[in-house]
Amino acid sequence: MWYWIFKYVLIGPVLRMFGRPAIDGAHHIPASGPVILASNHLTVVDSFFLVLMVRRRITFVAKSEYFTESGTKGRAKRWFFTAAGQVPIDRSGASAAESALNTARKILDDGKVWGIYPEGTRSPDGRLHKGKTGIARVALATGAPVVPVAMHGTRQVNPAGSRMWRFGKVTVTVGEPLDFTRFAELRDNRHVVRAATDELMHALMTLSGQEYVDDYALRRPA
């Protein structure tokens, strides 16, 4: 319930005021069944605008620290991230990546929408960086379609390094679903997984108009 209250009552009106958002290609998102929404990542508010403009409920995975902090602040964080549709994963240790992928598979097995940023973190320079292969591994294992999504204008609303929002124009561009089931029998082949990932990043580059960089984005300091 809180997910929809946040979306339409508490946060949605503020987002509409600052970003005047629009969505193009929403018909490419299946109305039901498992689907992976894979987006470029420019700034913190990408997730907020993506949730606002997509009709279906989107589930993201978030680091477990958001759910385990003690005290009043910790309880408030836990409540907010749970209400916002995020599920915790433990990112410590060697099994962190596998834990995240298992959580994603569970989301898809339940017929839900998994939202993910293939770059792994926000772009430090506005360019599109090399994609990590986790999305392709999950898509190959589950058969879920991958829908590329490009965010435009969010850096104007929430400039890098600034905590103050500005007025701008945000557009969410949704591309045609990518079907990787043709590679299902080769899902354990790392070259196939890499090729599927690169196909997704090419689709994102085309949708977003960003310059592509064949290097991983560096994680921003916490």
Give an account of the 3D structure.
The protein is of the alpha/beta class and 222 residues long. It is 40% helix and 17% strand. The model has no long low-confidence stretch (mean pLDDT 89). A 7-stranded mixed beta sheet has the order 1-8-7-2-5-3-4, sandwiched between helices. Strands 6-9 form a two-stranded parallel ribbon. It is globular, with a radius of gyration of 17 Å. It has helices spanning 2-10, 12-19, 46-53, 65-68, 71-83, 96-109, 134-142, 154-157, 190-208; strands at 22-24, 35-39, 58-63, 86-89, 113-116, 128-129, 146-152, 171-174, 212-213. It is built from 9 helices and 9 strands. The longest helix is centred in the last third of the chain and has 19 residues, at 190-208.
Strand residues, percent: 15-25%
List segments where confidence is low: pLDDT < 50 over at least 5 consecutive residues. Answer: none
Major sheet summary line: 7 strands, mixed
CA-to-CA gap between the ends? 30 Å
Tally of DSSP helical segments:
9
Order of helices and strands: HHEEHEHHEHEEHEHEHE
Rg:
17 Å
Strand order of the largest sheet: 1-8-7-2-5-3-4
Mean of pLDDT? 89
Protein name: Lysophospholipid acyltransferase family protein
GO molecular function, one term: acyltransferase activity
Keywords: Acyltransferase, Transferase
Pfam family, one: Acyltransferase
Structural topology:
Layout: H1 2-10, H2 12-19, E1 22-24, E2 35-39, H3 46-53, E3 58-63, H4 65-68, H5 71-83, E4 86-89, H6 96-109, E5 113-116, E6 128-129, H7 134-142, E7 146-152, H8 154-157, E8 171-174, H9 190-208, E9 212-213
Parallel strand pairs: 1-8, 2-5, 2-7, 3-4, 3-5, 6-9
Antiparallel strand pairs: 7-8
